Amino acid sequence: MTTPHRTPLYPLHEALGARFVPFAGYDMPVHYPAGVKQEHEHTRRACSLFDVSHMGQILLYGDEAAQALETLVCADLVDLAQGRQRYALFTTSTGGVYDDLMVANQGDCLYLVVNASRKDNDMALLRTGLSGDVRIDMQERALLALQGPQAVDVLADFNPAVRDMTFMDHQRMTFSDIPVWVSRAGYTGEDGFEISVSSEQAVELAQRLLAYEQVAPAGLGARDSLRLEAGLCLYGHDLTEHTTPIEAALPWAIGKARRQGGEREGGFPGGDVILTQLANRDHLQQRVGLIAEGRAPVREGAELYSEQDSRLGEVCSGGFGPTIGKPIAMAYLPVDFCQPGTRVWAEVRGKRHAMTVTTTPFVTPGYAR
Amino acid sequence: MSQIPENLLYSDSHEWVLDNGDGTITLGITDHAQSALGDVVFVELPEVGQAIEAGEEFGVIESVKAASDLYAPLTGDVIAVNESLEDAPESVNESPYEDAWLIKVKLSDQEELSDLLSATAYAQLLEQEG
User: Fold this and answer.
1) Residue of chain B whose Cα is closest to the Cα of A321
2) Range of the domain at B30
3) What pTM did the predictor assign?
4) Among the four A155, A256, B46, B97, which has the fewest Cβ within 10 Å?
5) Is residue B122 one of the residues assigned to a domain?
6) Is the preceding peptide bond at A149 cis, omega within 30 degrees of 0?
């Protein structure tokens, strides 16, 4: 057993009465005294402050950084404009997903945010995989997410320029006197911002944000139920080395320039597999959303069966959706069963529960497009 | 502080038991248990007529966070199930000692009641568990 890491906000979480869980080698708040459901609902109604400092923040310097990174991911990064951010996937040689990440163009460098559980793997991949003159700089910064429809009003108090940002914009700026890197993005399906700040100033910024009555702290529990309702994938659960981006229903994550006939076709690991699947749509399984007809939550690992009792697959993420008011899940199903409205049966403690295939997201996103 | 009514008996797995005085008991989960579970979204209970055995699982309570097994503090046959929990599982959080009773049981062995904890003893247990 190694000692779990703590983020710079750990003492603040303790003071706020957080309950902690180990997550990706960190002691992270799973919820505060309000509880997961209230934190979830508060995020959809007002806005919540999440500590996501466990995630990996990496800067790539060098004139050829975008070209070099394109050899590892299927996104179009060469055309990523300064001040913009894009979702990307590190792929494997067999067409699987090695990690999902955000890449922003800061002008003099690329800013990457990768999953906590994958940051060591990703760093190793970058160190061995990036060709040419690219400097990799792992940051020891904190990352806060202020998520919800009122986030923009709160942050505009610190810097009105946030109002001019749209979904997936990224800017370096100052909040009062605190230098921050801000993305108008998140992991909740709501409008919101992710704010990278130095470890030294993280607590101060968090306290200033929490001073607003609209802002409440929220933990990983609500983060998970919010992202599930938003139909967003969690690496290691909904995305793995054994699922392709096409099977994961993320074809939009493959840049046009990287597709067959594009300016820079392929050139990423597993490109032949992934681009053939994209062109022919001949994949056998696909990620779908499922809504339960009853009230029993259907969680990760629950097996799914057809009406005729053939095993179809298992749930990769599942739980109760507080905004939907019903148990919801995501699963990989054979393509014949992916049509919305298809009924499948989930086995929970020996009993079968009916679920209906649906498109994701389960809730209408509030992104500021 | 969690509520621990004086008139009830308790198990160390955080169930409460009301001795109905006629060889039957009513049981539920304690205020401490509901608070630790968080927002309850589903309760799975046995059916009337089913036997339950002290120390064995007899149902499941699911919160937004996770699923938790329910352990029978006593042995006997289920004579009633709180059907209202099917549509209002949140009452486990709101009224753990009244509206959200779980099941009523006809005891096989009334002596087992003496294995349960008094309110004072349960309060001490909670203190020890911190």
Assistant:
1) B64
2) 9-110
3) 0.94
4) A256
5) no
6) no
